[in-house]
Amino acid sequence: MAGRPSEQEEEYFARQEFERRKQALATRAQSASEEAQKQEAAVAQCRCPKCGAELVMVPYKGIEIDKCSQCQGIWLDCGELEQVLEGDQSFLSAVKRIFT
Q1: Three-class SS of residue 13?
Q2: Burial class of residue 76 (count of CB atoms within 10 Å of its CB; 0-12, 13-18, 19+)
Q3: What is the mean pLDDT of each run of 10 residues along the chain (100 residues)?
Q4: Residue among 54, 34, 33, 56 at smallest CA distance from 45
C-alpha cells in the first residue's frame, strides 16, 4: 500500500536532506578556503592573483609597481597607493579617499 508517508518518515528524510545540504555547504566552504590560500600563495610567489601569470616590476614615481604579464592588471603593495598619489589632487586622489 503506497500511502502518504508517516510523520516519522518525513522527519527522517528531512534530517537526511539537512545533513546532505550541510555537508555540501562544508565542502563548498573548504573549497573556497583552499582557493583563497592559492591566491595568497600566488601573490607571495610574484604571481597575479587574478590569472596566475608572472608579475613584472615596473618603476613608477620611485616605487616598484607589480604589473601582470598576461592580463595587464596592476597590483599595489601596502602603502604604495599613498606613495603614488602623494601631492596629487586629481581624480586618483579622490579615489584614494574612498579606499582609505
Answers
A1: helix
A2: middle
A3: 76 91 92 82 75 87 87 87 75 69
A4: 54
Give me 84's grid cell: 603614488
Cell numbers representing residue 75 in the block: 597590483
Q: Which residues contact 85 (CB under 8 A, 6 or more apart)?
A: 92, 93, 96
Residues 6+ apart with CB under 8 A from 7: none
Q: What are residue 63's phi and psi, to 5 degrees?
A: -125, 165
Read off φ and ψ for residue 86, nearest 5 degrees: -55, 120
Q: What is the pTM of this model?
A: 0.47
Residue in the block written with cell 620611485: 62
E strand residue ranges, the chain: 55-60, 63-68, 74-75
Q: Which residue has the cell 528531512?
A: 14
